[in-house]
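Working notes for the structural subgroup meeting. M.R. asked for a predicted model of this chain before we commit to crystallization trials. I am recording the input and output together here so anyone reviewing the notebook later can reproduce the run.

Input as submitted:
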Amino acid sequence: MSQLRWVVLAFACLCSSAFAGNTLTLTFSPAVPSSRDPVAVTLNESTCGPMISYTVTGSQITITSVDTACGTPPPSTSTTIGPLAAGTYQVQWFISPRPAPEASAPLVVVAAAVPTPALSAGMLSLLAAGVMLVGWWALRAARQR
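Returned structure, recorded in token form:
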């Protein structure tokens, strides 16, 4: 009787892990992108569909992949989106033909720093004119010797 109890307990453990399923997650690279960066989105689920598309509607990003039959699927599925405007987005990944999203996660995109030139265009022109004037003066002085 005690052996039967262990068999039933082992079967229950095996079944619970089989029916619990994996929690699907989305990861982003870079984790905190700027508005100039393309973003790699990875779903920790293998899909064999070569077609992955995405749409951006306001602050909602919907990624859809089509699951088809294949030999050995990759361990995860990735796509690249963006660059995106600065803001907070809700990213949802659908695997067609399933109607509900497989995974969902927030994505924060920060504003890219605007590069500041060392010299304005006017100052750069003035510097170039000054260099030419000094060169002309040096050549003129060399000729007079």
